[in-house]
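Query form — protein ATP-binding protein

QUESTION: What is the three-dimensional structure of this chain?
INPUT:
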Amino acid sequence: MEVTSFVGRTTELAELRALLDQARMVTLVGPGGVGKTRLALRGAAEVAAAGTVTFVELSGVKSSELLPHAVSEALGLPEQSDRPQIDGVVDYLADREMTLVLDTCEHLLDACALFADLLLPHAPGLTILATSRQALDVPGEHVLAVPPLPLPVAGSGGDGGPGAPDGETGGGALELFVARARAAMPGFALDETTRAQALALCRRLDGIPLAIELATVRLRALPLGQLVTQLSDTFALLEGGRMTTLPRHQTLRTTIGWSHELCTPQERMLWARLSVFAGTFDLAAVQSVCTDEQLPAESVLQHLIGLVDKSVVLRAGENSARYRLLDTIREFGAETLAAQGGREQARRRHVTHYRERLRECEEGGFTSRQTALYRAMLDDADNLRVALQYASQCGELVSLTGDMWLFWLCGGRPAEATRWMDRALSLEPGRTAERARTLAWYATFAVYQGDHASASRAADEALEIAEELGDEGLLARALLGRGAALAYAGEDEEGREVLEESRRRMIAVGDSNGLALVTTRICITAAFAGRPQDCLEAFDKTVELLGEDTEECFLMGFVYMSRGMAHLTRGEIAEAGQALRRAVALKDSLDEILGIANTLAMLGWVAVSEGRHRRAAWLLGASDTLAALVGKRRLLGNPRMIAMHGKFSDEARGELGEERYGQLHRQGGALPRSQATAFAVRDLDTLPEKGAAVAAQRGSGPGALTRREREVAELVAQGLSNREVAERLVISKRTADAHVEHILAKLGFSSRSEIAALLGADAAVVRTGDQAR
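ANSWER: The structure tokens for ATP-binding protein are given below.
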């Protein structure tokens, strides 16, 4: 959402709209700070009526192999378990009308070019709008150069002559200066003197929007005349270097350098060290990563406030306690840090900080705090991933991957987990406890992908290392991985024995997380093997371990799924349905797509057993669509479960007839996830009304909203006016108005009642789930 007014660019917007009407690949090209991103966002918003617009911010993506994952996250797609992530993106976009905005491509130029070249032929409804400092050179690409904002034409009245009234600037650069000057210093107005001074400043800055914005902030501290004089002096001082760089790059660099000169020595040091962060960060991270004897922790807040005041550091949102750097600002800081010689130390502190944060989260990983901890880790996702890169450079990757389990587990990212763990294990071959811990978790994530052979190999190596070290805790974790790999692959008897041995050792070493995991797996394997009584006993043990009133979602989702299978095996159909509906609600609360897909399938089996074949076809269609987003392996690769899925699907097809079954299956597959889970949990026999579903097809469900937007949406759904929302959240009414408008745009809605309808369906999942406890 734009938080400042959009100024000028009438010509470029018209050209962009024309290009988007005729071309499927458009790249906005220009130097850093020229306003490519703002233009792309505005242009995309104006063509949004033609379909969904998805914005993918790439500055935090440091490796080309992560590009498909960044796009997947923006689209709301899960990790692919058994195929390249790009395949899931291609399949998802194949039949959708969408504009995909890829912002800041220059550091991933080849990867973005290959990505676009692959997507466009397979997704005829897709348009790609990219921003970059150079063209991608993709076949069919149309390039629109984004120049600096124009300066007033001499004699137009905007050149300092007395003929132009206040506000009629005659050029986009001066117009931007006036708008930002009024924001920085309310009451600012152009007269004959200030117009000439402002024009001199805009000309000195070559009309580059970022440079103008950086300069106008200084009006809080300096009169305009003095600002122009000091800027001119600074240019004279700094302009001599980097003569091979384009003049506009020199100007922007000099402007940032000038802001740097206006900072105190401590602020400059902090600016440089902040460059190791990716995405957004909080004060605790700054105090941990950026401090030493030269920059004490107790002084950091004061210097951070100084950088915010100077617009070097930006607040991530109006009410957020998180911060970020613009790319050009971060690049300048990174160069400064490299020159100072403190980059490696700062990166090591970055790794240490996020490892400690992950270990703090580990303690609450399987408690009622789980969802809140996971959502907090999502805020740090960019920094967790860049920490993995830093760790790979300083020999600490195998240790860090062993600490990332909660982020990867709750988010349903087993493919990302095994990819990083493969790298860690190849880079650091030593027979250490850290390696054994990563191998044990590798086995878990391989099992969730149905790759039982890889899981067994990892567990066996972890077991060998644990025995060499005489570490009983690691031994218990290695046995957990080996037992799950055997049992899920269908070797029930041997798998059960190994899991029971793991459970005994978990109790002996007091590993509460491990005990909860192994008891859950015993429950699952009993259900999969057709041993319902053993499954129900393990269910009771898991609930006892986690607590009767727990709000833990990941393990409880699995054990309720297992309980449903046990009841289904015993022919207790109503009980099976109740348990599986609870499992869907729990899996949905963590956005765990594969778990949702598997549980919807099992509810389809329940519906077949009840003779509700239309409901079964809808549920199986929704399940198949979600499973396809993740990959081909489902139901944890268990042979018995896969056979059951085929049996129940065939029965529903036989009762309905091939044509009718196919029609209903496609209807279920077309449901947005929030609609599919609401349909499942509310035990409906007719599909939801069209209103929210149609809107969700154009835009996204509640999952696309930020936490603040979700808060606002929920209050709107309760019938509160914008003013009442503002009072409840202690924000201005104008901010509440902007939030509501943005929510409507994101969801593709035109009225507040549609928000209430969508959240009503979404809330039903939670309400019904609570009743099932």
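ADDITIONAL NOTE: The first strand starts at residue 25 and ends at 29.
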